Amino acid sequence: MTCSRIFLQVMFLLIGNSSYCQEAMCGFQYMLKKNTIADPSIVDKITEVNRTLSQPDDYVISAVARENLFIPVVVHIVKSESDRYISDEAIFSQIQILNRDFNAKNLDLNTVPDEFKPNISNGGIEFCLAVRNDGNSDKAGIIRQYTDVEFFGLNNNLYYTDRGGSTAWDTEKYLNIWVADTGESISGFGSYPGQTEAYRQGVVIHPAYFGENESRRYNLGRVAVHEVGHYLGLNHVWDNNGNCDTDDGVFDTPSQQSSYTGCPQYPQSTCGSNDMFMDFMDYVDDDCMVMFSKGQVARMITVLETFRPGLIQMNGECLSLKENSVEENFFLHPNPIRGIVSVEVSENTASVKQVEIYNSTGKTVFSEKIVFRNKMTFDLSFLPAGIYFFRAGKSSKKIMIL
Ligand SMILES: [Zn+2]
Question: Ligand 1 centroid vs 189 CA: distance in angstroms?
Answer without folding.
Answer: 7
